[in-house]
TrEMBL record:
PANTHER family associated with the record: AMINO-ACID AMINOTRANSFERASE (PTHR42743), D-ALANINE AMINOTRANSFERASE (PTHR42743:SF10)
Entry protein name: Probable branched-chain-amino-acid aminotransferase
Pfam family, one: Aminotran_4
Assigned protein family: Belongs to the class-IV pyridoxal-phosphate-dependent aminotransferase family.
Species annotation: Craurococcus roseus
Matching Gene3D superfamilies: 3.30.470.10, D-amino Acid Aminotransferase, subunit A, domain 2
InterPro entries: Aminotrans_IV, Aminotransferase-like, BCAT-like_C, BCAT-like_N, Class-IV_PLP-Dep_Aminotrnsfr
C-alpha cells in the first residue's frame, strides 16, 4: 500500500508529494518540526509534543497552521489512512512560500504544514539487546537549541560521524567548558560515580525532550531522585551507567563511550529499572491520550 502524506491541506501519495521550491523551510530552514511515537494507535505523550510544538512556533514568531483540535484530527486521519498501529508521525511547519528574502514576508503568507507517518519495529522488549555505543563530539549547533528547528546540519554531521565510528549516537559537549549538553538527536543521562542519576538542566542550550519530561514525571511518581545540572565529559566517562531518551530511543542504554566501557560495560540496574518504568508508561500510561 502506498504511503499517504498530508501536504498543505491535501492528501497525496508520498511518492509524488512535494513542496514549492520557494518554501522558506527549503530555502532557509525557517521552520520547526515534531516527531510523535504512535503505539497501538495512540500518540505517546501527545500533550507534551503539541505543547512543545506551540512553544517552538512562538519562539520563531510563526503562527499556528491550524487550531489544535483540527491538527489532532489531521494527525489521526493520517495514521488511519496509512493503517499504522506502531510508528512515527513527523510534522513540519514552515513560514510558507514567498519570494526569497531573508526577512519575513512583508505580506504574511499561510504557514506550510506537512505530515508523514511510517511504521517502525515493535517496542523493544529486551533491554540488553537495545543497548548501544556512543562517541563524543564538540557541540557546533546554534545558540537556541531549545527550539525544535529544522536547521539540523550540525546534528546530521555529528550523527554521521557516530555511524562511521560504528556507534549509534554522538554525545555533544561544549569545547570551552567540557560540559556535556545532549545527544545529536537525544537527551543524555548518566548515573555518576556517586550513584546519582543526572541529566542536563533545561535552557537555551538544551532541547526540552518530551521523553525526558515524561521520564522525569515517572521518576517523581516512583520516588526516584535525580539531579538536573551541568556535568562534564570526564563525569560521563567515569559514570557507572549512561542512557539516552527520545521519541525513538525511549530509554536506550549506552554501554560503550568512545570505545571504552561505561561502568562494567553492561546494562546497569538503574537503567534497567527505568527501561521497564518507561515501557509501562508507553504501553498504557494515563498521560497518553487515545489517537
Amino acid at each position: 500500500m502506498a504511503r499517504v502524506a498530508y501536504v498543505n491541506g491535501r492528501w497525496l501519495d508520498q511518492r509524488v508529494a512535494s513542496v514549492n521550491i520557494e518554501d522558506r523551510g527549503y530555502q532557509f530552514g525557517d521552520g520547526i518540526y515534531e516527531v510523535v511515537h504512535v503505539f497501538r494507535g495512540r500518540f505517546v505523550d501527545e500533550d507534551r509534543h503539541l505543547a512543545r510544538l506551540d512553544r517552538s512556533l512562538h519562539e520563531i514568531r510563526l503562527p499556528e497552521p491550524m487550531p489544535r483540535a483540527a491538527l489532532l484530527q489531521v494527525m489521526r486521519e493520517l495514521v488511519r489512512r496509512n493503517r499504522v498501529a506502531e510508528g512515527l508521525l513527523y510534522m513540519q511547519v514552515t513560514r510558507g512560500v514567498s519570494r526569497r528574502d531573508h526577512a519575513f514576508p512583508r505580506r504574511p503568507v499561510p504557514p506550510a504544514l506537512v505530515m508523514t507517518v511510517k511504521r517502525i519495529p515493535p517496542y523493544p522488549k529486551d533491554v540488553d539487546a537495545w543497548a548501544a555505543s556512543a562517541v563524543t563530539r564538540p557541540d557546533l549547533r546554534w545558540a537556541r537549541r531549545d527550539i525544535k528547528s529544522v536547521n539540523l546540519l550540525p546534528n546530521v554531521l555529528a550523527r554521521q560521524e557516530a555511524r562511521e565510528a560504528g556507534a549509534t549516537e554522538a554525545i555533544l559537549f561544549d569545547e570551552r567548558t567540557g560540559v556535556v549538553t545532549e545527544g545529536a538527536a537525544t537527551s543524555f543521562w548518566i548515573v555518576d560515580e556517586r550513584g546519582a542519576l543526572r541529566t542536563s538542566r533545561l535552557g537555551h542550550a538544551i532541547l526540552p525532550g518530551c521523553t525526558r519530561e515524561a521520564l522525569v514525571a515517572e521518576l517523581a511518581e516512583a520516588g526516584i531522585a535525580h539531579e538536573e545540572g551541568d556535568f562534564t565529559l570526564g563525569d560521563a566517562r567515569r559514570a557507572r551507567e549512561a542512557f539516552l531518551t527520545s521519541a525513538t530511543s525511549f530509554v536506550k542504554p549506552i554501554t560503550n563511550l568512545d570505545g571504552e566501557p561505561v561502568g562494567e560495560g553492561g546494562v546497569g540496574p538503574v537503567t534497567r529499572r527505568l527501561f521497564d518504568l518507561f515501557a509501562r508508561h508507553v504501553q498504557g500510561g494515563p498521560r497518553n491520550a487515545p489517537a
